[in-house]
Amino acid sequence: MELYLQFGYGMMEHCRSLIRDWEGGSVILSPRDLNSKQLQSLPSEICDAGGSVLLDPQFYLPYADHERLVSHDYWPNEYESGGFWTGHEVGSLLKKLQKLNGELGCSHLILPGVHAAAVDDDWLMRQQTIIDEAVRLGIEEPTMIVTVALSADAVKNIQQIHTLLEAARTWSVGSVYLVCEHPKDYLVDDPIWVSNTIEVCAGFRLQGKRVILGYCNHQMLIAASASANAIASGTWMNVRSFPPAKFRTQYEEDIKKRTTWYYCPQALSEFKIPFLDVALQQGVLNRMVPDPSLGSSHADILFQGPQPSTVDFTEKAAFRHYLQCLRIQVSRARHSTFDDTVAEHERQLAVANDLLTDLHSRGVSGGNRDFKECIEANTAAIRVLQTNRSPMLRRKWAELA
Predict the structure, then answer these.
(1) Across-strand partners of 26?
(2) Could you tell me the pTM of the whole model?
(3) What mean pLDDT is predicted for residues 267-271?
């Protein structure tokens, strides 16, 4: 499994630097967070650094009014929910996106997809219309990535998940860009949401489609158990989860109140720096040091002796530490067999649980970024996946690599 960078606010230099350091990697570009000039210049810089780019059209809310997003040439001047899907407007949108993708040097085309409040006949019709029009325009199946953007309610409805997977059997696409809205929180403690998210991944993979799971955080390391090909993540919370409201003008950015967090990979949790001070006083800070094999030196300053809150651990360092650690965790998440992959995720959950239990007993907590309450949800999701999909995943695991 690979980590893609999910572009968000203020990520231009992060992308350039990380792709250069990694000597490769993929970036999913965000028209919401790039003006037209930046959208044209950044891809060549990423490609020159050894990376590749994809363009997320972000057509989730056709009535979106975010100023930067709707300023791009491909965005329809007007949208009328009935006529748009029966006239030539879909073809016009795809032609403009096809041209833009060519200018940006994208090897694959992410088709626009509307956010599904529910997987119903209307939404499925729109998905099929977009795919059919792409085929009519001569866009080759292996280069097409269909967007599947699901509301939290749709993800939690297993009947809608089954309806989606059944309909998708006839889709003439090679890959899926799967975006799942979180119920409310950054980390999700709802076992049904987690279970159904990886059920969708597994279902698409067993149909022979590649899966890129967008807008993720480290909780989606579990997607390796469904043989997802990639997860995408970034800096701020609104690119590590999917709030559809971010595509509207009135959306209030979480960046307005900046807090620096330290990601502790073995705890699958993030901590505000004052809690590292508590860990130091309680004699457990050494247990929060990242494994050197993760390749991150960005947070070293926190563990070199002085009280962590007195050192200059910057926002930039925090973001790059998170993404560097996550990249290696993602690369290690899938093993040569289904059972080994599941066992590794369960081991990781057990390690996190033991460490968090000890840290909590000493007053060290990650607050709303603490993974303790999510361990049971991920464990339950693994059990459901084993019950529903293990025979087929075991049999086809090598083919799904």
Answers:
(1) 52
(2) 0.97
(3) 98
